[in-house]
Design a protein that fits this description.
Layout lengths: L1 H8 L2 H44 L8 H27 L21 E6 L13 E14 L2 E13 L6 E2 L15 H12 L5 H10 L6 H26 L4 E13 L4 E12 L8 E6 L4 H7 L6 E3 L7 H4 L4 E3 L2 H15 L2 H20 L4 H29 L5 H11 L1 H4 L13 H12 L10 H19 L4 H11 L18 H5 L1
Parallel strand pairs: 1-3, 5-8, 8-9
Antiparallel strand pairs: 2-3, 3-4, 5-6, 6-7
Helix pairs in contact: 2-3, 3-6, 4-16, 6-15, 9-10, 9-12, 10-11, 11-12, 15-16
Protein name: IS66 family transposase
Pfam family, one: DDE_Tnp_IS66
Length: 512
């Protein structure tokens, strides 16, 4: 009746405004439901394709290591999609309880460590002393490199004899709810796969020798779930990166498996990182199924700083939209070095002497602050760079078009402004070597980068590697970092997620 009375008191104008608000709210709600349903349909379709790949006979075309990596990726993708679907459905209604299969008990021969959980107070709200009437025990599988052990979580049951109140300490939150792995075991699996280049089928054998065989399908499910849980942290790391004025960029090809064809095609891993002169040390990888400049534009959307990169055309569109290009002196030098190493070219040798003089100054500049570095470069590097420029112009006039030396000179002259931008800016490095060193771990583990045609699997790997390599940049042990983060994530406030980023995390935070 209250709502009806309120409507009766409204005049015509108020009624029209009220109706307009209702229509707007209804339209927004329908749009939100439609978008959510679209996402659910997309995930359901993706899951159906993955299941067809997993069980179809044509997947038998894959052999050896390709088949192992195929199975691992599909299992991880299915688990990740399932987790996302659960989160979407939970927003509308509580998920119906599922019949959980009974898990086999953990082997009795593994050592046990008891972790007791008791109420902070054993005094009931009514004033009586609680009496311990029993306990609940759950076991989780932990792993310290080389040794399995079992954590026995014991939750005492306390009851009040007067008011029959039952009290227990809450169940500790875990990244994988009701699963057996501890954060330490999950961290080990992730670090072994993405830092030590150990595919899951190899880890299965390693764990078997340590006394506990874990099916690779189970390991893959854990990897998929961890990837989903860690993604908000990677998103926050990307935002921290895009707040910096100077960034590096580089890309490297990786093989992506095409299920059904039994072949691989070329995908790319892009790397974006802060400068070696930046107080914030971070790198974020972005996996893409191609090398189009659209991928770089999408990742750096809204950013307008100074980008240190090579001469790849994919970055050119950025420079037309507010991004300042900073070239890589090492790339220019490398072209002359190849001529000197392979043909003992005297012209190339003379060019190397100029580059060598510039790098001699950079070794000193590296130890200075921004202002001192800029003054040193203006005083020492500028005259050498000007002399090199004049020398290049003179040598180009003497060189025949199309020769290797002419191409090397043209590369430097064509990018001269970008190549020497560091001379007038103390915040800029002279080359792109800092990010190239972040790409090198990928080259070492290329056999792990067969993603069964899964863009999702590639992006998951890129996300976890972003955290691992950023932890290394900040001189953290990746295992210790991931273990602590995975322990904290389930209950950590979203508004404070930045505190868990590698450049803000400390070992003392984990110990505390």
């Amino acid at each position: 009746m209250h709502a009806a009375d309120q409507l009766q008191r409204m005049n015509a104008q108020e009624l029209r405004e009220f109706a307009a608000r209702l229509i707007t709210e209804l339209t927004d709600t329908r749009r939100e439901v439609s978008l959510k349903q679209l996402r659910i349909d997309q995930l359901t379709h993706e899951m159906a394709i993955l299941k067809r790949w997993k069980f179809a006979a044509r997947s038998e075309q894959l052999h050896g290591e390709q088949r192992h990596l195929f199975d691992e990726t599909v299992e991880a993708d299915l688990e990740a999609i399932g987790l996302e679907l659960t989160a979407l459905n939970r927003a509308d209604e509580k998920a119906a309880p599922k019949d959980q299969p009974r898990r086999a008990p953990l082997p009795a021969h593994l050592p046990r460590t008891e972790v007791r959980h008791e109420p902070e107070s054993t005094i009931c709200a009514c004033g009586c002393a609680l009496k311990r009437i029993g306990e609940e025990v759950s076991e989780k599988l932990d792993y310290v490199p080389g040794v399995f052990r079992v954590e026995r979580h014991i939750r005492g049951k306390w009851a009040c004899t007067r008011c029959q109140t039952l009290t227990q300490a809450p169940v500790p939150a875990h990244v994988i709810d009701k699963g057996i792995p501890t954060a330490g075991l999950l961290a080990q699996v992730l670090v072994a796969k993405y830092a030590d280049h150990q595919p899951l089928y190899r880890q299965e054998g390693i764990f078997g020798r340590a006394g506990m065989t874990i099916a690779r399908s189970t390991l893959a499910q854990w990897v998929g779930m961890c990837g989903v849980q860690l993604q908000p942290l990677v998103d926050a790391l990307r935002q921290a990166l895009l707040a910096r004025e100077v960034l590096h960029a580089d890309e490297t090809p990786v093989a992506m498996l095409s299920p059904g064809k039994g072949k691989t095609h070329r995908a790319y891993l892009w790397a974006y990182g802060t400068s070696e002169y930046d107080a914030l040390q971070a790198v974020v990888y972005d996996f893409a199924d191609g090398r189009s400049g659209e991928h770089a534009r999408r990742f750096l959307e809204g950013w307008s700083g100074k980008l240190v990169c090579d001469d790849y055309s994919g970055y050119k569109a950025l420079f037309a939209n507010g991004v300042t290009e900073a070239g890589c002196l090492a790339h220019a030098r490398r072209k002359f070095h190849e001529l000197w190493a392979n043909h003992k070219s005297e012209v190339a040798g003379e060019a190397l002497s100029f580059f060598g003089a510039l790098y001699d100054i950079e070794r000193i500049a590296r130890e200075l602050d921004v202002d001192e570095r800029q003054r040193l470069r203006q005083l020492k590097s500028r005259p050498i760079a000007d002399a090199l420029h004049q020398w290049l112009i003179l040598q180009r006039q003497r060189s025949t078009d199309g020769t290797a030396i002419a191409k090397a000179i043209d590369y430097s002259l064509g990018r001269w402004q970008a190549l020497t931008r560091f001379v007038g800016d103390g915040a800029l490095p002279a080359d792109n070597n800092h990010i190239e060193n972040r790409i090198r771990p990928i080259a070492l583990g290329r056999s792990n980068w067969l993603f069964a045609g899964s863009l999702r699997g590639g992006k998951r790997a890129a996300a976890v590697m972003s955290l691992i390599q950023s932890a290394r940049l900040n001189r953290h042990d990746p295992y210790a970092y991931l273990k602590d983060v995975l322990e904290r994530l389930p209950t950590y406030p979203a508004r404070r997620i930045d505190d868990l980023l590698p450049h803000r995390w400390t070992a003392s935070l984990a110990d505390g």
